[in-house]
Amino acid sequence: ELKVEQNPLFLSMQEGKNYTIYCNYSTTSDRLYWYRQDPGKSLESLFVLLSNGAVKQEGRLMASLDTKARLSTLHITAAVHDLSATYFCAVADLYTGANSKLTFGKGITLSVRP
Amino acid sequence: NAGVTQTPKFQVLKTGQSMTLQCAQDMNHEYMSWYRQDPGMGLRLIHYSVGAGITDQGEVPNGYNVSRSTTEDFPLRLLSAAPSQTSVYFCASSYSGDRVSPLHFGNGTRLTVT
Fold it and tell me: β-pairing, A61-66 with B104-105?
């Protein structure tokens, strides 16, 4: 059974500083997704990571994937208030393959303080 | 394009009542799925479909039924609502022919069962 763990579950960040959050998964996969959710809103796709060593960047966020370690990291550069949200990673099981069947982590809530 | 449309946005049911949560997408996506989101639990897959006429169970299917008679629609039925089904429900869809395709989420239905 595929399990996805995110840590920490809550992170208070100071504006302007750098932080890294983590996503571990338990079985082989070829796809990992990062989503953002603002309070009371839907989920918005941030990154799709497909291969070992994949790195994607958008603004102050950079995501990477290490399939051997079954680990993805989301690095935040110079945190700003607009990044306050909950971030989910989700993994597709390699053998089922369907994008419709993703396993999500519990989410990491980021709060940026002045 | 409207994307993924869920109705209703909010619903209150009494224990034992039945209802159908509607989900429609206009992107011609083959894959569709239903997730529920509970505080501290992330998103958990209820049912999913890889195409019209094909459905399968996810992690938490008990108490829910689905059918997929068209590519566009994927309704979720609660046959006899229970307080444990109080949750926020998200419908999502994705394109099957592209490994990079993320899930596109609807805006959610907030269900309370009293």
Answer: unpaired
